[in-house]
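Exercise: predict the structure of this protein bound to arginine.
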Amino acid sequence: MTKLWGGRFTKEAEAWVDEFGASISFDQKLVIQDIRGSMAHVAMLRSCDIISEEDGHKIHDGLVTLEKKAANGDLEFDVKYEDIHMNIEKLLTEEIGEVAGKLHTARSRNDQVATDMHLFMREETEEIIGLIRDLQRVLVGRSEEHTETLIPGYTHLQRAQPISFGHHLLAYVEMLARDADRLTDSLKRVNVSPLGAGALAGTTFPIDRRQTAEALGFDGIYENSLDAVSDRDFLIEFLSIGSTIMMHLSRLSEEIILWSSEEFDFIELDDTFATGSSIMPQKKNPDMAELVRGKTGRVYGSLFSLLTTLKSLPLAYNKDMQEDKEGVFDTVTTVKGSLKIFTGMIDSMIVQEKSAKKAVSTDFSNATELADYLAAKGMPFREAHEVVGKLVLHCIENDIVLAQCPFATFEEASALFEEDIYEALDPREVVARRNSEGGTGFTQVQQAIAKWKERLDI
Ligand code: ARG
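Solution:
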């Protein structure tokens, strides 16, 4: 079989070697981007008088036919033609004849593949931002519903202070907002056109790179042809942002898994997002949350894989760079899938208000409140801490909680205690009073919800 680049070769390639070098099995995902890039390129070749009007139209029409076929899944790719770029050229030749060969004037697969990846990344980045917004909206909705539902807040996974469940969910809304901001910012570097850089050095033809950039909706062009074809920073950046998104989801996964356990019992997952056991009839496992937590590992893997692939690569294009695609494609699928799963899972989970309330009423998460109470009455906080620590110890020894101590015990501990101490120990009060900016106090949470509703157009 003669290759598109076969002129310099004296021997036929061996099929098994070709197969090893081919990328068509995965880069066919770029078929639409590849065709669109070619359409912009051929229009430019024509308007710059590099090819004739007639040839330009023939090529354009052929590409339109291929695009339609691609949309219907009617294109057949062949590993013989290595990658999506040469497969499309081959299919175009079948469609319109030898004139198809003019399409590759003033272009290389190196600027072509980079262009395809930039177009792909732009679309996917925008879609992922949309999915983040969907999840944020659901989280804000559930926060509003559960502003006054109390759960213990934790540090070191030890009960620390009671908090509003809504406040807890809003922490994830903030994290996701940073993720969306990072993606939006990355578009500055994604939406730049490498097309026209040629193989590495530019071209002798009088091309107009600005025209193709504009036709493809890019905001600008790479200013150095070597950089244009060898830059994969935008993919590294995506994998890094994707890793951060997964890290956030994996932290929420872990909480969902804990909360849905009998030990915590703060939520129950909808059946859709849980699975049973083949042997233990009582089980309802939080599989989807576990899977998202697990998939975080492979996304980190893709980031490290590409960083390592690019390390020490001399300029400009090297075939190593073909390895950029699978990890990126996989990460796009994983991040999108995980965001969708979470949107459904959070939307449908049942919050076990009663058992959450029981948790905050039968623990020592109100101990800080007691120390604050004394400190507010003038006792140095350190001393107050010591007094309350002793009271907690007394309670543990007598198997009671602070609110169950008779007033005499408080009086004995400090003369500053008054009867209103019981009110102060009520978890609702404890939460309501944490009204410093950004705190869990109900007024603060309501303000945060109002802010997010406005920002997210809810
Ligand atoms: N399939 C190649 C890739 O994904 C396209 C670029 C090939 N360029 C080359 N000079 N071999 O990187």
